[in-house]
Amino acid sequence: MDADGRLLKILCLHGYRQNADLFREKTGAFRKVLKKFSRLIYVSAPNTVPPLNSADGKDSESVDKRGWWFSAEDNSYRPDEPTECCKGYQESLDVIVKTFQEE
After folding, report:
1. pTM for this prediction
2. 3-state secondary structure at position 31
3. Is 69 left (phi over 0), alpha (psi -120 to 50) or beta?
4. Is 80 exceeded by the pLDDT of residue 5?
């Protein structure tokens, strides 16, 4: 809490192929520890990540997977490859700015 007794707000940004709901579920114990002192604010990235295909060619995922930006024009993210591409990055910044303004 701050000096006025207000809860500290913490912005929580999920990882690649996650979303705000999945991240919130994964941080349940962490939320419980901090609930007297803070309010965790979960935000989903604006960019939908293409599904991974299984060996039979069918979509193996049914959950809404998100990413903050892509490192390639084909909407993929390859952290081990250098790139100048940052597709979706500005849209992600816009979501974060909007969250700060609203919260």
Report:
1. 0.81
2. helix
3. beta
4. no
> Residues for the chain: how many in total?
103
How far apart are the C-alpha atoms of 17 and 1, rounded to whole Å?
Answer: 32
Position 58 scores a pLDDT of 56
Residue 4 CB neighbours (<10 A): 5
Residue with tokens 């700015």: 97
Token digits of residue 17? 């192929």
Of 96, 11, 7, whose CA–CA distance to 46 is shortest? 96
| DSSP reduced 3-state for 17 | coil
Nearest one of 16, 22, 72 to 45, comparing CA atoms: 16
**β-bridge partners, 38:** 8
Q: What is the pLDDT of residues 19-72, one digit of tens each?
A: 999 999 999 999 999 999 999 999 999 999 988 765 555 555 668 999 999 998
Residues 6+ apart with CB under 8 A from 76: 50, 70
